[in-house]
Amino acid sequence: MRKFTLSLMVISLIIWSVSGIAQLRPVFPKVKKDFKALKPGRVPKDDYGPSIKPVNLTVSNKSVMDDTILMVTRYDLQTNSSTQNRIYLYPDGTIGATGMMAHTDAFSDRGTGYNYFNGTNWAAQPTGRIEDERTGWPSYAPLGPTGEIVVTHTNTTGLKIATRTVKGQGTWSQVVFPGPASAPDISWPRVVTNGPDHTYIHIICLTYQVYQGLNLALLYSRSLDGGVTWDIQNQILNGMTSSEYKGFGGDAYNWAEPKGDTICFVVGDSWNDEFIMKSTNNGTTWTKTKIWTCNYDLWPGTTNTDTFYSPDGSNSISLDKNGKAHVVFGLQRAVGDNTGAKYWFPFTDGLIYWNEDMPELPQSLIPDTLLAHGNEIGWVQDTNVWYAGATELAYYFMSMSSMPTIVTDNANNIFVIWSGVTNLRDGNNYMLRHIFSRASTDGGITWRDTIVDLTSDFFQYHWTECVYPSVSPVSTAVNLFLNFQGDIEAGVYLNGSQGAQGQTDVTDNNIIFLSPTKNSIINPNVGIHELTNKLSFSMSQNFPNPVKGSTNIRVNMLNADQISLDITNILGQKEISISRDFSTAGDHNLSIDAGNLSPGVYFYTVKIGNESITKKMIVE
User: Fold this and answer.
1) Predicted confidence band at 68 (pLDDT cuts at 50, 70, 90)?
2) Are 469 and 351 in contact (CB under 8 A)?
3) I need a labelling partner for 510 at 20 to 30 A (CA). Which of 7, 182, 285, 297 fits?
């Protein structure tokens, strides 16, 4: 990724930065928070904002220092759990990338944002969706010798399939793909293609209504002629019927990139088995393999359940060059009561790995046992997270290490990328997430000793909420290719507006492109850096942030002393300098008048004696 150096902003000001972290799993303190919270239902498909607000046509970058920003969106919920395939590297070096996008605060213009890399440059950020109606949840794949396909859901009529014969140019052709006659509204799709010139199309999706005894039913469809006809349409596969399950959760499933005629997808969450469905004859027949057995697949909701460890519904799967499936998912704890209510435990952590050479995971998913058997491969990297207050975690209703995406290359190297909670804070004092990665160079038998923060760059991502990574299933010998969503506030507006912890205002979110080298994950050469001694003071993120006019910073001092505060622009030029004497220790407030600052990114440094802390603020 691109790096920048500012001559007047020295690295000694960086208090916390992660690049490579040792493999040892943190020891959880005995005071680990053990409270549960109600598990919400899926976000409705017609999830408009609470009121109609003025259109915001601004699609400019938040910072000139960011990596490539593919698009800007006001709509910030990219998935309910598993992140779809949103980016693809083609053999000619071009890249297609998508994201769920809206530029209005009411989200009435929501649809697929699309950007294209022509081998040299990315196109301009899109100003509107590709579809002719409001859609959501885009899934992207190649189609035909030179084309591409995006499958989304609409509000009522079924799926919208958009295609064009030449990637990156031309008009999108659009057709509606309805569900079954008694359940025409189908949702949350995933698409992959294979066969000659990628003309075979495979789709999985959910019904939005009860169907054949399932609430909701997971359906499979196949076309062998590029979508002209469908020889398998809206089929419930054996092993996924109402005799095995009550229904399935939105986005709790994902495709692997096909290998020849071998296609495979993964399904699972806290209230269903974790399993894969695999076909070696291009979807004609299927074999089900359980990864983990849930005791509550047919739970009627009239009895209390045990509290149990389980998958969190955020799954990813990849087929290696031999067609073997590799799966990752977040680890969660859950419980249900006799009213039918389902609960989750916010301070649960762990990223779990499984492949087809391994036995079924034990029903009791104890983290220490999973770690000892090589199944737990990711976790939060700052142990201070465990000492955070219960109200300092923004809710995604998933594990603190989750939203995984996995890719295997032609050398059978495996790369897992996920979003994990850090001890960095946003302006609302919620802990921010970063994008982490870990690699295996022997097909998943062992894992490298380091977990790498792909968003560790201090000036670009130190105060950015980094979530929803999606990695191209195709890579080069040197690089991986992925996109993710970056925001200045932790959490999801659509969750926060319904009472969940996290942001409660609509903000601009960047869909950002990254291309880390594989070697930077396999053999990182920089370790964790932090001060050896605890500072004698602490300070909050400025609030509000972004700022118009004045903003405030809280400082807590162990001793009475003089405080100096300097604000610099991104070139290191000092814009504001403040000095204050405080005659007592404790909490103090610093007020900054930013009304004369031009819009942009600034850094403020508070210094007491020989100690200093630097943070970033954005002026609008």
Assistant:
1) very high
2) no
3) 7
3-state secondary structure of 540: coil
Structural domains of the chain sorted by starting position, each given as residue range(s) with its CATH number in brackets: 16-529 (2.130.10.10), 533-619 (2.60.40.3080)
Q: How long, in residues, is the chain?
A: 620
Task: Supply 604's token pair.
Answer: 């403020």
When the pLDDT of each residue in the chain is averaged and rounded to a whole number, the result is: 87
String of DSSP letters for 470-507: EE-S---SSB--EEEEEESSSS-HHHHTTT-SS--S--
CB neighbours of 143 closer than 8 A, spacing ≥ 6? 149, 163, 193, 198, 199, 201, 226, 227
Q: Over 157-199, what HEC string results? A: CCEEEEEECCCCCCCCEEEEECCCCCCCCEEEEEEEEECHHHC
Q: How far apart are CA 474 and CA 88, in angstroms?
A: 7
Residues paired with residue 187 on neighbouring β-strands, in sequence order: 206
pLDDT at 329: 98
CA separation for the pair 392, 502 (Å, rounded): 9
> For residue range 171-202, what is the model confidence (pLDDT) as tens digits?
999 999 999 999 999 999 999 999 999 999 99
**Residue with the two structure tokens 């290998």:** 259
Q: Phi/psi zone of residue 396: left (φ > 0), alpha (ψ -120 to 50 degrees), beta?
A: alpha
Greatest alpha-carbon pair distance for the chain in Å reads 79
Residues 416-424 have a mean pLDDT of 97
